[in-house]
């Protein structure tokens, strides 16, 4: 049986492949990542592609056993970690294996994250020839002192070189920035954004630094070695980023993301924000299927041992309740430029839409047509607006 939308339309799938390897662990990062010296017991980089492909096989079999199938894969995203620590041939092999299981859409968006110092001209050319269409470089900053605070190891001068190589290979290019690093000035942010835009990128992400409690940077804050970012300073930096992006022809389409054209928006991330279905392949990866959410065991060695016995490497799963799905929809869709249909907001809180329109947080014209769309001031206060709209 092929499960699909009630109207009989096609059902697309997105696939996230988590490659949990990094050359070093950055002090601010709490992602599920490991350096080579931390791994063993079947969880090594060399064994990872075969493990990931085995999980793809098991995932497809489990979906089909549940009477669930897809027409095509519309987006693939190799994330991490640093996927490009693996040889380019490994990423291409995983993509080729996926293609044997499910058809890829003709215009499928296939992205890999990369550090600027983890690629070469030859590796990017191989990725493009193997089907990758897009690369997202973790630039973070163009200021050496900021990179040092973040424990980033690449030379800022390497970024334009890596972008040029990607362009030469025919890849779309995104640069990811982080703002709000302790000690970073507004001038530092301006330097970084201008450097990113000077590369002629198609897409830019700029995320405010969130210091998670179990990271090295959090421990530095607790010891008084670093100073926590000031909210007003963060707002000034966000407005500067938005102004510089707009002046260069990039338009915001999600609170932290800007693209030069609609085609160059990250369709993979949009699938998350719009509540689509996706596979999560790899240690710690999450998957979603029509309100059923599951996530894998985190450690690569345990992940490998489970796959070796033919067992799905799932740690836990849950069926998301209807009310929770409604809350998640508001939290995610309100952050994108297309906004949220008014009818998606609970009747009990719908009156807050007019309150936030009067405060300048929601676009009045869009609201008159039945959609809640954040203004720039609203983007700065998105979490507060969302809190007022959920039960």
UniProtKB/TrEMBL annotation:
Protein family according to the UniProt entry: Belongs to the anaerobic coproporphyrinogen-III oxidase family. HemW subfamily.
InterPro entries: Aldolase_TIM, Coproporphyrinogen-III_oxidase, Elp3/MiaA/NifB-like_rSAM, HemW-like, rSAM, rSAM_sf
Domain of life of the native organism: Bacteria
Location of the protein in the cell: Cytoplasm
GO molecular function: coproporphyrinogen dehydrogenase activity
Name listed for the protein in its UniProt record: Heme chaperone HemW
Protein task: Probably acts as a heme chaperone, transferring heme to an unknown acceptor. Binds one molecule of heme per monomer, possibly covalently. Binds 1 [4Fe-4S] cluster. The cluster is coordinated with 3 cysteines and an exchangeable S-adenosyl-L-methionine.
Chief site of localization: cytoplasm
Pfam families: Radical_SAM
SUPFAM superfamilies linked: Radical SAM enzymes
Cross-referenced CDD domains: Radical_SAM
Alphabetical UniProt keywords: 4Fe-4S, Chaperone, Cytoplasm, Heme, Iron, Iron-sulfur, Metal-binding, Oxidoreductase, S-adenosyl-L-methionine
Domain Radical SAM core: 7-251
